Amino acid sequence: MIAPLSIPSPDPVWQVWEIPLFGWVIPIHTYALCILLGMVVALIWTSRRLTKRGGEPGVVLDVALWAIILGIIGARFYHVFTHPGDFFYEGANPWEVFAIWNGGNAIFGSLIGGAVGVFIGCKITGLRFWSFADALAPALLAAQALGRLGNWFNHELFGLPTDLPWGLEIESTNPAFPAGLAEGTLFHPTFLYEMIWNIIGIALIVWLERKLNLRWGRALAVYLIWYGLGRSFLESIRVDPSELFLGIRSNVWASFAAIAIGIIILIVQSRRHTGLEPSVYVPGREWHAPDPDVDSDDTDSAADETTDETDVAAEKAEAAATSTSGTPSQERSTPTP
Questions:
Q1: Are 236 and 193 within 8 A, CB to CB?
Q2: CA count, 13 A, side-chain hemisphere, 113
Q3: Do 112 and 78 contact (CB within 8 A), yes or no?
Q4: Largest CB tally within 10 Å, which of 91, 99, 201, 321?
Q5: Which residues are annotated as a binding site?
């Protein structure tokens, strides 16, 4: 029996929206829209946070271009690496490795590829890597929370069976439905657990920023520790197949790695940088905001006045030169007595 308070899965017709365009039908996946919405929110919030700290408005886009492209590549290849059986078998189509539209993108691969992209973007723009990472930390959790809605629409990545009233309804015809379970069995809504965990993490980082000096990469460190802790538990109760190393799911190992890296960053950066961050830019690459008291019209008026004064001075000098050169000519025209 399905509990009266259980969480229903959306109608499968909501998974893909077919948009007619110039005689073609373009499929738009709801999962992709959730990820795109998360990206937009993260970009806007990161931009505002970085601008308040002295960054040039819009500079986030210059970094995001690299981060998004390499993040997508990293997400796909990490998924392929951790699910080799889905792509490398006799008769497999090798191009399926690149078919991201068929699903299969891993957040940890996205973090790795995205970090490389941020590093490249910061080198180009002159931003400090740690400054950008700190501005991004809570926004990244927001993006991940919104992205998890896609798993709900896709009826995927749910947890173990449960009799809790908020269990998730999954149709028995779903290929991921565990064999041997009765129809109507409820499952842990891991997508919802992760959303709640990420929202709490956002509040934690913002609160700690007000109480402590979470600069020089410390906000990123808190993100890695917090997300790693939550993800390590959620991965352990999921029923979808995954590669195992020493009997532990690959993403659990990745979560442990995130926690360890976060702790190392927190300790090292706390010892190396005890003071406040002087600027979000590296020395010599600072961006200086234009003086709000100087108006473009004022600048033009001042330039016009300077030009007028220069012209008047030039006219006076020319007149004086003409007057001086005229005297000798008059003297030569006068006969010598």
A1: no
A2: 21
A3: yes
A4: 201
A5: 148
Return phi, psi of residue 127, to 5°: -75, 150
142-151 pLDDT, tens digit each = 999 999 999 9
**In degrees rounded to 5, what are phi and psi of residue 26?**
-100, 120
Taking residue 2's Cβ as centre, other Cβ atoms within 10 Å add up to 12
Structure tokens at 60: 């986030």
Give the CA dihedral 149, 150, 154, 160, nearest 10 degrees. -50
Q: What is the mean pLDDT of residues 150-166?
A: 93
Comparing C-alpha atoms, which of 310, 228, 306, 300 is closest to residue 262? 228
Query: Residue 320 — very low, low, confident or very high, per pLDDT cuts 50/70/90?
Result: low
Region of 274 on the Ramachandran plot (φ > 0 left; ψ -120 to 50 alpha; else beta): alpha
Report in angstroms the alpha-carbon separations of 22 from 19, 25, 26, 168. Answer: 10, 8, 10, 40
